[in-house]
Amino acid sequence: MLKSEPLVLPSVHTSTKRVKKKDRTLLQTIWSYRVSYLFIAPFMICFILFIFLPVLSAIVLSFTYYNSIEPPRFVGWDNFRYMISQDLTLLKYALPNTITFALLVGPGGYIAAFLLAWLISILPGIYRKWFTLAMYTPSLAGTIAIGIIWVPMLSSDRIGYLNSVLLKFGFIAEPKLWATSKEYLMSSMVFVTLWKSMGIGFLAMLAGILNVNPELYEAGKLDGIRSRLEEIWYITIPSTKPQMLFGAVMAIVGAIQSGEIGQTLSGMNPTPQYSGHVLLTHMHDYGYTRFELGYSTALSVLLLIFIYFANKLCEKLFGTKEGE
Questions:
Q1: Is the dihedral of CA 168, 172, 176, 178 positive or negative?
Q2: Residue 290's CB: how many other CB atoms inside 10 A?
Q3: Among candidates 1, 51, 50, which has minimal Cα distance to 304?
Q4: How far apart are CA 94 and CA 280, in angstroms?
Q5: For tag attachment on the chain, is the N or C end more exposed, with fewer CB atoms within 10 Å?
Q6: CA torsion 51→52→54→60, rounded to 10°?
Q7: Omega cis (within 30) before 152
Q8: Which residues contact 105 (CB under 8 A, 6 or more apart)?
Q9: pLDDT per residue as tens, the chain (324 positions)
């Protein structure tokens, strides 16, 4: 009969020595890459100070009642319960307007940026830079500049530029309230936002299209591609997926940031019959006017969730998949 050997358990002292050895190895590895950490330190410091900590603070404050005078008071899920059950302005106006505005401006601006980038890319080099500058310049205009340009253009009286031209050529019989009526304000917001939407994403897509290997187009013609549309679908878009992903993300951010354009055009806060009231202006209303900062940060968390899922959708559509 075989005699079983006794089970020997590692001693506590041996386990401690192993842990210390692993810690020493880890510290040695970190120290060996110390120069690399110095290079990424500026970015990490800025990321922590200006992105991570503010987002973390907003999430914490969203569970409190805070009016900037008294210390924050923890209220749990009350802000979010109020948001989905009692805030009628949010449910009736802000959310539907935000969805409508984002669906029109986001995909619309993105498609327009890609088409303009492609059209500019086929121009001769001497004209390309001037058209690029002309398309990109409106994106540099701030809210005040937009007001200076578009408020006289969309003025509701007969001397407004748009009304004056349309009346002169007989397209309308009386002046239209382009920026001060419920019927036209959202359309005016979308048009002006599309006008200024050719920003960094547009430049990225233009750079991506210009850097596509010309040999791919030659190979495509040999494989049976006979039209520009097929070139775009089978060669240009797959070759510029990283730039298109960046452009999609920037289009989403631009659509969200342009929410205050309704107040600028109409000169009213809130906008006429809340026709231009979006989630961003609703958040500013509670934060800057009512000083209910806890609820305002809860709205900002909701906005952050929207942006997160929109970015995930863009990554699914334009992200580079394994094997590509």
A1: negative
A2: 11
A3: 51
A4: 8
A5: N
A6: 150
A7: no
A8: 190, 193, 194, 197, 251, 254, 255, 258
A9: 445 555 444 555 566 767 677 777 878 888 888 888 889 899 999 999 999 999 999 999 999 999 888 899 999 999 999 998 999 999 999 999 988 888 888 888 888 888 888 888 888 878 888 888 888 888 877 777 777 888 888 888 888 889 999 998 888 888 888 888 888 999 999 888 888 888 778 888 888 888 888 888 888 888 888 888 888 888 888 888 888 888 888 887 777 777 788 888 888 888 888 988 999 899 989 998 899 999 999 999 988 888 888 888 888 877 666 555
And the tokens for 224?
Answer: 């049976």
- Give pairs for 23-26: CB < 8 Å, separation 24+: none
Q: Which amino acid is at 121?
A: S
